[in-house]
Design a protein that fits this description.
With about 550 residues, the chain is mostly beta strands. Helix content is about 5%, strand content about 40%. Strand 42 and strand 43 form a beta hairpin. The longest helix has 6 residues. The chain is globular. The two termini are about 20 Å apart.
């Protein structure tokens, strides 16, 4: 029936009109404020664990988890449940606490989940059906695949020994056919797929070549390109990989300053928004921050070297691509880059000196910056209001449905340590509201009224929305965003596509309809769940979940 594919939002009638309700913006009431530098809000002083890994699911719940090999957390498992684990010393111990939670964005509440094996420094991606697939970890967890379905009472299901190789500090990326590719890891110069392909891995010499004395090629940056090949950046070098033929299609120029950008130097990276309104879709990679060459060994001698202050952009679809470099307002290592619904990028968390690793960072960078890609060179960065809490090693940040940024984690220590240290373990959750959420923008903020919730490639569909006043037709756009699996300064699978506009009409005094075309190919937007936003004069609506299949 038509209602099965149509999201209709009408006061008090929503539950009656839609059999299977979609997931619109969360119902939590946001505090109003004004100002151009954003606002921080403490959601919980403690959720019991430190948020090393985060993933937003299409039921507006966030999966958060830490490592699981260090002893008890600060939240108990329900119903007296416990698990056995083997500690760093090899001793078998019992642990009755949780190392993972589900955070409900709509009610600002959470519940514990049970992890059996160690998820330390692991990776993940969401399947087209919305199930989170989490891959690897440490100790008994390094060959494990774990799955979590987005249902009210679901918990982790683990598949020991599923991976063909040890995946610790690996990266995962969803592919156009819905498979997941898992690349690299400590002393792993290869890749494999989920679902597995006869249990085989595939050698990738590029990863061996980019490993230096202090590694600096862990958690390689992966971005799926519009031609279906995979962009891989490790240390200072990058390639385009045809993963099905195990063939390097192209090697790009090295980043000019010669400084490593991957763990433990730990810069961050995004694929800038892909715009379907252009005749030729351009793909441009951006990499920011990190630590200079040899910063890691200097930390071990008590010297904390100033972090890298540059960003580089590489338009990989150019015939002869070259890096274009620019300066950030401040140096930053261990920062998180998050795509905003507007197409801007927020950079949050991190330190001004040192590297990733226990006790290795100094000088927290508490002020986020927002980067506007289309502004003139030298005018693209805006400095935002500072957070009250430092977020260093093992912190993370993701985009929420309503446009806020969820920020958590920071544990620069081997164990949870709250006293007698310069930067205590942080178990809190915060939300940052960018300037577009300020109260002064309410009159021009779009509110989505209806759209289809299931889309096929190249399908024409309409989005109905309202704007209270001063609508500017030429300043309207519709974008979809793939939420990221965030850990260690990289948002895996993070992606934005600006959809092609095709028609506009006025329905009533303040309601409108915009015709748009769904993504053209699975290489542009792999199948799965996305947040759809209407943006008006730089102010986004709350997101609406759509599924592309």
């Amino acid at each position: 029936m038509m209602a099965d594919n149509l999201i209709i939002i009408l006061p008090f009638l929503f539950s009656l009109l839609v059999t299977l309700p979609p997931q619109p913006a969360t119902c939590q009431i946001l505090p109003s404020y004004s100002g151009r530098q954003g606002r921080w809000q403490l959601l919980h002083a403690s959720v019991g664990i430190s948020g090393m890994h985060m993933q937003l699911l299409h039921n507006n719940k966030v999966v958060i988890f830490d490592r699981a090999d260090f002893g008890p957390s600060n939240i108990s498992l329900p119903r007296g449940r416990c698990r056995s684990y083997r500690s760093d010393t090899g001793t078998l111990k019992s642990d009755c606490t949780a190392h993972s939670i589900i955070y409900r964005t709509g009610t600002n509440s959470y519940r514990p989940l049970m992890i059996q094996t160690d998820t330390w420094c692991s990776s993940g991606a969401v399947l087209p059906n919305g199930t989170l697939v989490q891959t690897g970890g440490y100790h008994a967890g390094d060959h494990v695949v774990r799955m979590l379905d987005p249902c009210d009472n679901c918990d982790w299901v683990e598949f020991p020994g599923y991976l063909s190789e040890r995946r610790w500090y690996a990266t995962a990326q969803v592919l156009p056919d819905g498979r997941i590719i898992i690349v690299g890891g400590r002393r792993q110069f290869n890749y494999e797929f989920y679902p597995r392909n006869n249990g085989h891995s595939y050698t990738l010499s590029f990863l061996r070549e980019t490993r230096d004395e202090h590694e600096n090629n862990l958690y390689p940056f992966l971005h799926l390109l519009p031609d279906g090949n995979l962009f891989i950046f490790a240390n200072t070098r990058s390639i385009s990989l045809d993963y099905d033929r195990n063939r390097v299609v192209k090697e790009f120029p090295s980043i000019p300053d010669g400084n490593p950008r991957n763990y433990p130097s730990s810069g961050s990276s995004v694929l800038l928004p892909l715009d379907e309104n252009n005749d030729v879709i351009e793909a441009e990679i951006m990499i920011c921050g990190g630590a200079p060459l040899n910063a890691y060994p200097q930390v071990t001698r008590g010297t904390f070297v100033r972090a890298i202050s540059t960003c580089g952009r590489l338009r990989v679809t150019d015939e002869n691509p070259n890096w274009v470099m620019e300066e950030m307002p401040t140096p930053r290592v261990m920062g998180d880059m998050v795509l905003l619904p507007t197409g801007d990028i927020i950079i949050v968390n991190g330190a001004q000196s040192g590297t990733a690793g226990w006790e290795n960072g100094r000088g927290p960078v508490t002020r986020p910056v927002i980067y506007t890609p289309n502004y003139a060179h030298g005018r693209r960065f805006s400095v935002m209001n500072p957070a009250n809490r430092p977020r260093l090693y093992h912190s993370s940040a993701i985009l929420l449905t309503d446009g806020r940024i969820l920020v958590g984690g920071s544990n620069p220590h081997r164990y949870y340590n709250f006293t007698g240290v310069e930067y205590p373990t942080d178990l809190s959750l915060e939300a940052y509201s960018p300037p577009y959420l300020s109260a002064e923008n309410e009159p021009i903020r779009p509110t989505i009224l209806s759209t289809r919730n299931i889309l096929t490639y190249r399908q024409y569909f309409t989005v109905s929305f309202s704007v209270s006043e001063n609508l500017s037709e030429g300043e309207l756009s519709v974008s979809i965003v793939a939420p990221s699996f965030a850990t260690h300064s990289f948002g895996m699978n993070q992606r934005m596509v600006v959809l092609k506009k095709n028609g506009f009409s006025r329905l009533t005094e303040n309601t409108y309809e915009l015709g748009v075309i769904a993504p053209s190919t699975a290489e542009i937007a792999p199948p799965g769940y996305y947040l759809l936003f209407v943006v008006h004069t730089g102010i986004p609506s709350s997101g609406m979940w759509v599924r592309i299949q």
